Amino acid sequence: MNTPESSMQKKAEELKHQTAQIDDTQLDIAIRSGIRQARKRKTTRWIGDWKTMTAATVAVLLLIGTGLLVHDSFPSSTHTAMPADHQTPANLPSYFNKLYQQDILKQSLQPAIDHGLYQSIHLSDRSDSYTMTIDGVVADSKRIIVMYTAVDNQGGDPPRISDEKEARLVDRAMSMNTALSYNVTVTSTTPSTSHGALIFDYSKWQNVPNSVILNANLYSGSSDQNYENLQIPFALNTVHLKELEHTVVLNKIYDVNGYKIKLVRITRTPLRTDADLEWTTQQGKTIEYANVNLFAADPALHANAMLNVQGSSAYPNLGVTQYTFYYDSSYFSQDQSLWIQLAGIKFEMEKPLALVANTARSQLIQSPLPKASQISTQIDPDTGDTIVNLSIPKSGSRTIYYLQLNNTFHDAANQSYTIKKQDQHFTSSGTITYRLVLDSEPHYQQPLTFTIDDSQDTFSSLKQPITDNLQ
Fold first, then answer.
1. pLDDT tens string for the chain (471 positions)?
2. Would you kindly state where each structural domain of the chain is located, as residue ranges?
3. What is the CATH architecture of 8-41+75-242?
């Protein structure tokens, strides 16, 4: 792909100049309306059946299937995109050097700032216990990165942003919330002070707003239940951000085990690389997800390295799903070549499956799991909790077995209970153990019925992944 941006430096200078003209006193006039909407999972829903998956969810799915190794045999390219002139502004916050070294920001933050996309803000809000300051913002047409400092006014522990009531950006014109994608924190040498960057992602159906309110809930100590809400209104210069996008329309169709997946376009912005895909309901099955990787040239490795998935968004409508993957930025790479790799697809589960077990006797009574699967039970001596271990051996070519249980289960009296915790462990032999933590067992009437919401059987993996040069 050859996507040079000859006007980048000019636009960057215009952006920097216009940002300097913003009257900071006007930004502090705000309606602090106490917006307290938040959900623990980073999920938002819009008109149609919009949903945004977390990067953690995508990462789990990427582990399933085959062909996820970095390839070093792709052809090279001489395409170049960006001039190498760097002009780092002098008013960056002191913790910036720690911030840009974090993995999610390593490919994009420093070069984006060097090319004029940093906007100095320096606005604060104060509650009884905390003070939060927005030091500066880096933004493009897809992502806003808010650099912040938070201080405990009483000299206590450095404040943190609550996961339960996570930060949001509120578009003041549209009254629409954008959920936090990531909170990247760095250590501070100043007592009672924390620094970090809040990352907010926008889909192709959204425009980055120019007037927003940062809504954050801060706490300190071990519990985030006693938080205090702070709100900071600020303005963004978004005039030329859309012009900095590099979009190549491809409309390439790939056959994945008889199912058609279309790669519609690749869009690069200074802070993100997006791949837009599209598929339909086929053969009576609804495709939920495609295992798609992007590779870019890495001169330091003299090879092509896989770009990390940072998130995704989906819009299913009348049997057609439009799906966008967010990857590391490749905008500033001298070599603009990209490769796509498809390793498989995932279907929606047609109906939940039942797993019935007598945990008191460590017996599987009804199970859709591989035949050699086993169950064992133990009591935690400290808490009295029941620990249930489901051991699933390697089956055929599968090295990892994917399983997702509903958090609610029932006993023989149809009394419902909640799984307190579930996690998974892998062994070198390929066996995977799912560990379920239940309340102390004596009040359960055996057997117990668990519901499997998702499993490995919803995946269709390719024996040989499809690799295509998008150059």
1. 444 344 444 434 443 343 333 333 222 222 222 222 222 223 332 322 223 333 333 333 333 333 233 333 334 433 334 434 445 677 899 999 999 899 899 889 999 999 999 999 999 999 999 999 999 999 999 999 999 999 999 999 999 998 767 899 999 998 888 989 999 999 898 999 999 999 999 998 888 999 999 999 999 887 767 899 999 999 999 999 999 999 999 999 999 999 999 999 999 999 999 999 999 999 888 998 899 999 998 877 778 889 999 999 999 888 899 999 999 999 998 888 999 999 999 998 888 889 999 998 999 999 888 888 899 998 888 888 889 998 888 665 544 467 788 999 999 999 999 998 888 877 766 677 888 988 776 578 999 999 988 877 788 889 899 999 996
2. 8-41+75-242, 246-348+460-469, 353-458
3. Sandwich (2.60)
Which of 304-324 are b and which e, b meaning 16 or more Cβ less than 10 Å from the residue's Cβ? bebbbbbbbbbbbeeeebbbb
Residue 316, both tokens: 């299913």
Please enumerate in sequence order all residues whose Cβ is within 8 A of that of 47, keeping only pairs 6 or more positions apart, or say none: none
Architecture of domain 353-458: Sandwich (2.60)
pTM of the model: 0.72
Fold of the 246-348+460-469 domain? Immunoglobulin-like (2.60.40)
Q: Which two tokens stand for residue 418?
A: 């909640």
